[in-house]
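Form 12-C: Joint structure prediction
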Amino acid sequence: MFKKTIFHKIISGEIKSSIIYQDKYVTAIKDINPQAPIHILIIPNEYIPNSNYINKNNRQLFGYMFYIATKIAKKVHIDQDGYRIILNCNKNAGQEIYYLHIHLLGGKNLGPLLK
Ligand code: AMP
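Section 2 - Result
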């Protein structure tokens, strides 16, 4: 149903990217088109197209992605000033890449969420 995405290739090492963190479960990379001074994507190593595919077998992974996002926020020193985590699902949210990921944004005042 879903085609292989750029994130498949980054996680497998087929394409070089700025991986800033990787473990058995998740990979974190710098966004290629940053919307803030810090813009990092946290991606599960296991393929999940988007949050519509979270289920009782993989739900722990979802929590782990958020856990790693908060660890990275501390590591890059945006935890005190604050940050935003975004997840886009399907077309109304503008999901571009059909491989589950969360955006960690910070390093400036991000303004209101809805404009
Ligand atoms: P989304 O709209 O939530 O699907 O976001 C996809 C994000 O992936 C966008 O912010 C893109 O800038 C980012 N992106 C696309 N290709 C790459 C890449 N090769 N390396 C890092 N980030 C990418």
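Section 3 - Comments
The chain has a mean pLDDT of 95. The two ends are 34 Å apart (CA to CA).
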